[in-house]
Amino acid sequence: MWTLQDSGGSGTQPWPEVALPAPSIVLFTPGGKLLLAGGSDGRLYQLDVSGAGAATPPSVHSVVLGDGGAAVGSPTLDTATGLVYVGSEAGTVYAVQIPLP
After folding, report:
1. Does residue 77 come out as left (phi exceeding 0), alpha (psi in the -120 to 50 range) or beta?
2. In angstroms, rounded to a whole number, what is the distance separating the alpha carbons of residues 41 and 38?
3. Which one-letter DSSP state was computed for residue 58?
4. Which of 15, 21, 67, 69 could disulfide-link to 52, CB 3.0 to 4.6 Å?
5. In this structure, are residues 74 and 27 in contact, taking their beta carbons and an 8 Å threshold?
6. Smallest Cα–Cα separation from 71: which of 41, 92, 49, 99?
7. HSE, side-chain direction, 13 A CA sphere, residue 61
8. What letter does residue 72 receive in the DSSP assignment?
9. Where are the chain's structural domains?
10. Residue 52 carries which DSSP code?
11. Are the C-beta atoms of residues 56 and 41 closer than 8 Å to each other?
12. pTM metric for this prediction
């Protein structure tokens, strides 16, 4: 995963690329410090961008959902409960508390 930042039209990259296996569409949490994405390896990924910079990638945490054998889709956030809901190709929907450990 990588991102671009519009710095007066130059399109600079605010942090180094982070390798995730076939990431889903990314969910930005309120406040913009956490990014969440499902991966094809059965994991839900959390990128903490609060300490990221031009030479420092975001810190990455992840949890395996189920047996880890099914790709995880795009997460959605319930701000009232602090839960992320995400489905997998196995047909299961998971509720995961954020931030991830």
Report:
1. beta
2. 8
3. P
4. 15
5. yes
6. 41
7. 10
8. B
9. 27-97
10. -
11. no
12. 0.85
